[in-house]
């Protein structure tokens, strides 16, 4: 199966060849601010801090402010809007799925996939918990698998040396890419999880819940832990090679597995071709992404990766190199090799 379609020549100034069996697109508009159109962005709450910062700073560079709306409804919720043509950019904490690819195809929405950072899904507890420092993937599976629902409700049921205390769970909702990735990495199947936990698409709410509940355990992106280190305690995760703490260093060394993953933005090709503000915003985003990613608490990609993104974007190369599924154990260098296949 062919999972992406490659253009045969670049579109200078974003004047491009038609892609994915569409007819030749209209010529590019000028970059006159009067022709700028609003930019609607939705999707992953994990990617939200990067995109929101980029959008705010982009407007600081404009003589005429651009209406850039950045929301979050989860990766899946965002893709439903994106593939329906309701948004121009989708933030995603996992690659586009097969069903989402089909939805975009049916709606004739061509998209450019741009990885912008690496993340470490971080398992967190309340800082008053002074008896727990690390947890194994097998123990996480025991906690989160569907069979645990209404059965694994106390800490000592997971490890007998842990206290006989209530286990309170917090995590992303089912529209979240973090939920999809975590459940597939831990339980073996995307979306295969117990449902008797407090769920939210807003990572800030999850952070607040865990920081106020001494018996809590939750998970979300590294940035929300980095921004709230005084209120949270991160656990080292043991996947069989010993406990590894989530950090930039362990992600870059490919040691924090299987919970390290790339983060993406998906760009509506037609919107980029028709809206000068959109074209300029994405170029600005790619230029600023390394610094912003590090600033908000994620792991920036090597400079070469962003250059590959610029080429991919400039040439209007649409589709995905992930074949509709997450890939575990992926390193930054392997991600770059996938990018270079375009």
Automatic annotation (TrEMBL):
Keywords: Phosphate transport, Signal, Transport. PANTHER family: PERIPLASMIC PHOSPHATE BINDING COMPONENT OF PHOSPHATE ABC TRANSPORTER, PHOSPHATE-BINDING PROTEIN PSTS. Residues 32-286 form the PBP domain. Residues 1-20 form the signal peptide. Pfam families: PBP_like_2. The keyword Transport applies. Involved in the system for phosphate transport across the cytoplasmic membrane. GO terms for molecular function: phosphate ion binding. Belongs to the PstS family. It comes from Roseofilum reptotaenium AO1-A. Gene3D superfamilies: Periplasmic binding protein-like II (3.40.190.10). It comes from the Bacteria. One of its GO terms (biological process) is phosphate ion transport. This is Phosphate-binding protein.
């Amino acid at each position: 199966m062919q999972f992406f379609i490659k253009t045969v020549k670049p579109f200078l100034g974003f004047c491009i060849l038609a892609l994915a069996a569409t007819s030749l697109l209209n010529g590019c508009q000028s970059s006159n601010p009067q022709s700028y159109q609003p930019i609607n962005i939705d999707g992953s709450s994990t990617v939200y801090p990067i995109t929101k910062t980029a959008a705010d700073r982009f407007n600081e560079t404009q003589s005429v402010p651009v209406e850039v709306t950045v929301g979050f409804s989860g990766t899946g919720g965002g893709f439903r809007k994106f593939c329906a043509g309701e948004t121009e950019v989708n933030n995603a904490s996992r690659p586009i799925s097969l069903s989402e690819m089909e939805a975009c195809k049916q709606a004739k929405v061509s998209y450019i996939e741009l990885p912008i950072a690496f993340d470490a899904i971080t398992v967190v507890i309340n800082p008053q918990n002074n008896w727990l420092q690390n947890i194994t993937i097998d123990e996480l599976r025991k906690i989160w698998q569907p069979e645990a629902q209404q059965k694994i409700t106390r800490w000592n049921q997971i490890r007998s040396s842990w206290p006989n205390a209530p286990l309170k769970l917090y995590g992303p909702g089912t529209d979240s890419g973090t939920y999809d990735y975590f459940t597939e990495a831990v339980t073996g199947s995307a979306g295969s999880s117990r449902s008797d936990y407090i769920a939210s698409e807003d990572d800030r709410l999850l952070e607040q819940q865990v920081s106020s509940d001494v018996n809590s355990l939750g998970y979300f992106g590294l940035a929300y832990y980095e921004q709230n280190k005084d209120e949270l305690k991160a656990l080292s995760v043991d996947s069989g090679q010993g406990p590894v703490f989530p950090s930039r260093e362990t992600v870059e060394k490919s040691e924090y597995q299987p919970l390290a993953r790339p983060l993406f933005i998906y760009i509506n090709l037609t919107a980029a071709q028709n809206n000068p503000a959109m074209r300029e915003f994405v170029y600005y985003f790619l230029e600023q992404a390394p610094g912003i990613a590090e600033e908000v608490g994620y792991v920036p990609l090597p400079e070469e990766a962003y250059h590959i993104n610029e080429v991919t974007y400039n040439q209007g190369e649409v589709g995905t190199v992930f074949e509709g599924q997450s890939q575990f154990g992926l390193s930054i260098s392997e991600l770059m090799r996938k990018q270079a296949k375009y």
